[in-house]
Structure formats: structure tokens, C-alpha cells
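Hi C.,

You asked whether I'd gotten around to modeling the 94-residue construct. I have! Everything is below, sequence then structure, no commentary in between.
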Amino acid sequence: GFRGSEYARYQERLDILRRTLFRNEEVFDGQTAEGYLVFPVLHHDVKEVSVQVLDAVLRFDHRSEPQETAELTYCFHRETGRLFRDGRLALETD
């Protein structure tokens, strides 16, 4: 379990996380939304990741039925390393 002050700190950090996560809500023309998508921890050997969003709706009809959809792919390259207390950054090399 947690001790009192540790539990309070944990709850504060959890609250910040919940407020910054991307909400599963519709975003209409002219609106913007932002937030974080959180995924499980990647194995340290993983260097590239692709995220696919299937059936993203771009346009609805008057009955709120999807009229135009798209598949979106986002590709990320990952560099891992270590940040030392003195400010040095040591990136891992293959």
C-alpha cells in the first residue's frame, strides 16, 4: 500500500494524467481537440512504431451517418538512451 503523503502525490499525478488524456469525443469542423494517447510500455529493442486509426470519419450526412472515412497512419522513430544528472545525454546506438 501507500503511506499518506505518497498516496496523495500519486492521486495528484493520476489527476493530471486524467485531465490530459485525449477524450473519446467527436470533433466537429472548426473545432480542435488535444490530449495524450497512452500505450503500454514498449520493449527496449523497439525502434519504430506505427499507429493506425481505422475508419476516421471525415464527413457526416444530415442523419449523423458517416459519409467519408479515411485510414490514418502515423509512424514514429524512437531513440532511447539515458539522461545523467549532470545533463549529459547518452543515446543508445545499434
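If it helps when you're writing up: Residues 51 and 74 are 5 Å apart (CA to CA).

Thanks,
B.
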